[in-house]
Amino acid sequence: MPQIKGRAENLMELLTTQVGVKQQEIDALLDITRAINDNRSEQQLLQIYDLTLLVHLRVKNIAIFLHDETWNLAFERKITEAARAIDVEKELSPYTDVVRFDEDGLERPEALAEFDVVLPVRHKDQALAYVLMGYPHKESYEVMDEKIRFIQAFTNIAVVAIENKKLFKRQLEQEGMKKELQLASQVQSMLIPDHLPDDDRIQMAAVYQPHRNVGGDYYDFIELSNNEVVFCIADISGKGTGAALLMANFQAHVRALMKTSGQDLKAFVRQLNENILVITRGEKFITMFLGRYNYSTRQLVYVNCGHNPSMLYHGGETLLLTEGCTILGMFDQLPSVKTGSIQVPPGSVIINYTDGVTDVQNEKGLSYSTDHIIHYLQRHPDTDMHQLVRGIMNEIYRFKGEMEYVDDISILTMRIK
Fold it and tell me: 188 pLDDT exceeds 70?
């Protein structure tokens, strides 16, 4: 009887110990879950994870590599410099499941000499983390497979929580960027004329299609007097918010200088070039076509600063307006500035555009060219300017097929009556 009683007491003690171990595991899962619900930081989650492995499982050494654009050692305890320098892609990516070197019969690579277990955490085909550790301590009655399964489950919870925090942070950043882009787009739309003249002397129409929400194209129309107007189109190098900010600054300089030196286009362009260099420090360039038209004399004086040549179409003939200088913002002093001067016959059409139009390619690798625009004009010589802009844009859309737009697109058209 004493022996039976002793065995019963030992069994009860063993069961109590096993229950205690399971309770510790449940408590660890509750601790990490509470920390996640309390929105603890990544570092705090890793500390809870480490404390569980150290206190409850007595894992002496550990290294956790997390992926965030690149692989980084996010947490470590009692590892060598060699372990800190592990090349994750080379040394760990071959492991897609839990590996226990001694028990799985695998050769332990030299880089992993101080670790017994490699525990990858994956989502579908994507590796999120790799945990390297020594063996957890176990009592004689415990099964190592169960220990490893618990660590694997515990690790998955911690790593997925950290990954979700990163995703949420990225989402917030993207939402913030989206709002900033929307605001920038609204501001940019205020800088581009929302009303162009349509009267018995001139009809104008335009389109601006940024490659993204905002871009670096610019066009403008300025009335200098009842008899004289200025129009221009420009393309700032680059895309996105940076180009849009420079475009806004460029517009301010164009309008300010036009009041002081607009009568002399050569002086205007030289001063504008100097101002651009101050703004951009030579890191951005601007192409521009600018014309000054006098209703009474019907004279158009223009300067083309490295821009796609505007086209003057009349009576089936097309004249490319090429006189000018090199692009702005490249040289401290422009080497040469020329102006062009022409008499504009009644009914002439002038088309100004940025290189986003001619950068459009179709699936055969062919580009939409100035010849396409000229042929469209020849087929629709008397069309309304609004219809002309829509027609060219529709033709570009059909031409590109399934290909993507690669740049901002701007077209400014006018019929001088």
Answer: no
